[in-house]
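Internal tracking record. Fields below are filled automatically when a chain is submitted to the structure queue. Please do not edit lines marked as system-generated. If the sequence contains nonstandard residues, flag them in the REMARKS field before resubmitting.
Queue: standard
Priority: normal
Entity type: single polypeptide chain
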Amino acid sequence: MDDVFKALADPTRRGLLDELFKQDGQTLTMLEQRLPMTRFGVMKHLRVLEDAGLVVTKKRGREKLHFLNPVPIRLVYDRWVSKYAEPWAATLSALKLTIEEQPMEKVFEIYIKTTPKRLWNAITDSEMRQKYTFGVGVSSEWTPGSPYQGIHPAAGSPMMEGVNLEVDPPHRLVQSFNALWGEDVKHEKTSRVTWEIEPVGDSCRLTVTHDELSEQANAQIYGGWPMILSGLKTLLETGETLTTPGSLMYAQGPQAA
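SYSTEM-GENERATED OUTPUT FOLLOWS
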């Protein structure tokens, strides 16, 4: 948490995060052109943001792209923001995301003190998924090319569905993704979700990439990832479930969606 607060304390670094919020997946050259400082200065600020987990980088050919990772901010939010203020803030945040142009790729990263095998099991086990994915479990054979469905006990039909494109336990899972929980998301194009697990000491780095999104994709499609990953971390490290209003938003049944 200290690294997050240190990173956010500097107005230049907050400006970099604002630029990535407006347009995710920017190169160093693109970010350098947006700020009145040298390339070296931008690199130093980006390094602080990366160390705090607020920025994630991915290679695309010869380019290195920078993505805003909202998960650490979500963890701070879940810990300190009043449960009474949270629904209002979440509504305003969702409104802001909806009316602004959305990028085609979102990257989320989190460190969890667990083993790759245990983390993989938490992703693929239906009972465990229900505890951190708004009450929605998952049904699949977990083989390449097999279908999967997200099932809520109170729903009469799947909440989401897709195909397991790559299955490499306990390292990598790539899935197509179709949202089915409401009429406002059913018309969205098929997107893709990639789960990548990398052991780091006695912990794991989990990177979730949600891409192949349309530029005007409904924010519901990807906006829940920070809460989902926060809930997953809490579950594996403490055995408990998050009880913030956002994490419980759909836990009682699909009628709340």
